User: Which sequence fits this backbone?
């Protein structure tokens, strides 16, 4: 399955404990179909000290979230979330186009 959500995309969480949260994708794991989204699914990790300059303690970091729980958001304009399709232009370049309900115009992401 081709994963079409990429790093630095703006996404909306559509299900789970963080439903409704928006954030930027920091990393994508294609093998496990998971993404790390900024500010979403933050967990606390107990980290052991690894030398004098790297202190230990409890740190907060983002944990991965499954790609099926994410929806792409348009970057400009109103910031609406929608499903999208891949459109090929006359030069053979692929573009992601949002499928907005009730609107005939296409919004390229």
Assistant:
């Amino acid at each position: 399955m081709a994963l079409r959500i990429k790093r630095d995309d703006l996404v909306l969480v559509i299900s789970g404990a963080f439903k409704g949260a928006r954030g930027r994708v920091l990393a994508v794991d294609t093998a496990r179909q998971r993404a790390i989204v900024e500010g979403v699914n933050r967990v606390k990790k107990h980290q052991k000290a690894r030398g004098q300059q790297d202190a230990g303690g409890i740190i907060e970091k983002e944990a991965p979230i499954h790609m099926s729980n994410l929806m792409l958001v348009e970057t400009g304009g109103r910031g609406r979330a929608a499903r999208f399709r891949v459109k090929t232009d006359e030069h053979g370049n692929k573009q992601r186009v949002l499928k907005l309900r009730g609107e005939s115009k296409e919004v390229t992401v």
